[in-house]
Amino acid sequence: MANHELIELDYDPLEFLDGEGLGTLVSPQGVAEVAKADQEMAATLELYEALSACINIVGPVAVCATKVGAGFKVSLKLAGLEVASANVGLNKCQTLQGNVLLAKASIKVCFQGKSLTYQAEACTRGIVGWNCVKKNGTLFSL
C-alpha cells in the first residue's frame, strides 16, 4: 500500500472555470438556463424556416415566397398557376415575368438587409383592354 499525503495549494486550480462562466453550467440552475436557451433558439430557427407568404397584387396576380436555407424561393402566380419562380439570396434581386390569357405581370423581388421586397407591374384583361397597376411592398421583414 502506498502512503498518500494531502498537499495544500495556495491557489484554486479550477478558478479559471468561473471566469468563463463554465462553473455555472454544472450547477442545476446552469443546466436549466442552457436547456431554456436551446429551446428558445430551436423555436426561433423553426419560425424562420417555416416562413412563407403570398401577396395578391391585383385580381389573379400574386407573388409568393418561401424561406429556403439562407434565401427565399419566390414565385409568380397568375390565375392560381405558378408561371415563374426563382431563388433570391442575400443582397440579390430576381425578376419574374409571366403571361396567361387574362393576366400578365413583371415582378422584381429583392432580398436586401433583412427584408424581402417587391416591385410589380401587373395587368388584367378587361372588356375594353388591359388594366395595369404598379405596386411595391415588403413580403417579409426578419
What does this structure look like?
The protein has 142 residues and is of the alpha+beta class. The protein has 2 domains: 15-47; 51-141. The chain has helices spanning 15-19, 28-49, and strands spanning 52-58, 61-68, 71-78, 81-88, 92-100, 103-112, 115-125, 130-141. Strands 1-2-3-4 form a 4-stranded antiparallel beta sheet, with no helix packed on it. Strands 5-6-7-8 form a 4-stranded antiparallel beta sheet, with no helix packed on it. A hairpin with a 4-residue loop joins strand 7 (115-125) and strand 8 (130-141). The protein is rod-shaped, with a radius of gyration of 28 Å. It starts with 14 loop residues before the first helix and ends with a strand. The relative contact order is 0.13. The mean pLDDT is 79.
What distinguishing features does this structure have?
142 residues, 4-stranded antiparallel sheet, 2 helices, rod-shaped
Give the arrangement of secondary structure elements.
Blueprint: H1 15-19, H2 28-49, E1 52-58, E2 61-68, E3 71-78, E4 81-88, E5 92-100, E6 103-112, E7 115-125, E8 130-141
Antiparallel strand pairs: 1-2, 2-3, 3-4, 5-6, 6-7, 7-8
